[in-house]
Amino acid sequence: MLTVDGLSAAYGRVTALREVSLAVRPGEIVAMLGANGAGKTTLLNAISGVLPLSGGSVTFDGRRINGLKPWQTARLGLAHVPEGREIFPGMTVEANLRVVDVNGGGPEFGVDRVLDLFPRLKERFDQLAGGLSGGEQQMLAIGRGLMARPRLLLFDEPSMGLSPLLARTVLGAIAELRQSGIASLLVEQNMRAALKVADRAYVLRVGRVTREGSAAALRDADDIKQAYLGL
Ligand SMILES: Nc1ncnc2c1ncn2[C@@H]1O[C@H](COP(=O)(O)OP(=O)(O)OP(=O)(O)O)[C@@H](O)[C@H]1O
């Protein structure tokens, strides 16, 4: 459903991504793994239209989407849950969810379903989003993404800054979404956690894809274990 082909992106004269290619098939969770500064955020921004490409193409359901703006890709069913979470701190949890007025054509995701997925948000429903803990804000950001009825979700480091328990809750919720037929591209520094929920994964190193395979194969690969999993 998503095909990225030879994508390059730059900040001025500094190239951040070099000819990155990847695919996400319907209903799949694909992880893009890489250290700090590898280019993961840049990749998601280039796919969702936040950042222009300097080369290559992005195709979503057979349609070329590079050059479209983020609000246009959202309408096509591509929701981006950014690293900074970008919730509205001065609005309640409820208002943050209800303000979303996009239909990406994916499964219907009303407020009730978001609260079923993240019961913690039910307890905070009338509170200002700015007062939520980091984990709760992450849940809210994901909930907002879901309200746009996406068919593909782009997650930027959803486990970042969370306790191991909350990180498991959030990644577990992402795994649950697969059952609704929603595909995910999951950018993570936390390889161990990401490889538990992903079907397939790629490794990004200094702007290039250096490895790809099934999550199970990457988990068992000696080079990955040594370089990234600390085994
Ligand atoms: N606005 C910017 N201007 C210039 N260079 C940038 C900018 N944003 C990112 N970069 C550079 O592009 C490269 C990729 O950054 P990016 O944020 O995509 O990496 P990342 O893998 O998401 O890392 P992190 O985990 O720290 O978010 C880095 O070398 C970074 O310094």
Number of distinct beta strands: 10
Largest beta-sheet characterization: 6 strands, mixed
Instruction: Say what the CATH topology is.
Output: Rossmann fold
Mean pLDDT: 92
- Distinct small molecules bound, one entry per kind: adenosine-5'-triphosphate
Compute the number of structural domains: 1
Q: Using the alpha-carbon principal axes, give the shape.
A: globular
Strand percent estimate: 25-35%
Topology as a string of helices (H) and strands (E) = EEEHEEHEHHHHEHEHEEHH
Fraction of residues in helix: 25-40%
Low-pLDDT windows of residues: none
So what's the CATH class? Alpha Beta
The secondary structure category is alpha/beta
As a whole number of angstroms, the C-alpha radius of gyration is 17 Å
CATH superfamily: P-loop containing nucleotide triphosphate hydrolases
Total DSSP helices: 10
* Strand order of the biggest β-sheet: 6-7-8-3-9-10
- Identify the CATH architecture: 3-Layer(aba) Sandwich
Task: Outline the structure in words.
The protein is an alpha/beta fold. It has one domain (2-39, 48-184, 196-207): 3-Layer(aba) Sandwich (Rossmann fold). The chain has helices at residues 40-48, 70-75, 93-98, 111-117, 119-123, 134-147, 164-178, 191-197, 215-220, 222-227, and strands at residues 2-11, 14-24, 29-33, 55-60, 63-64, 78-81, 152-156, 183-188, 200-205, 208-214. It has a 6-stranded mixed β-sheet with strand order 6-7-8-3-9-10, with helices on both faces. Strands 2-1-4-5 form a 4-stranded antiparallel β-sheet, covered by helices on one side. Strand 9 (200-205) and strand 10 form a beta hairpin. The longest helix is centred in the C-terminal third of the chain and has 15 residues, at 164-178. It is globular. The termini are far apart. The model has no long low-confidence stretch (mean pLDDT 92). Bound molecules: adenosine-5'-triphosphate. Adenosine-5'-triphosphate (ATP) is lined by residues 11, 14, 16, 34, 36-42, 189. Belongs to the ABC transporter superfamily. Residues 2-231 form the ABC transporter domain.
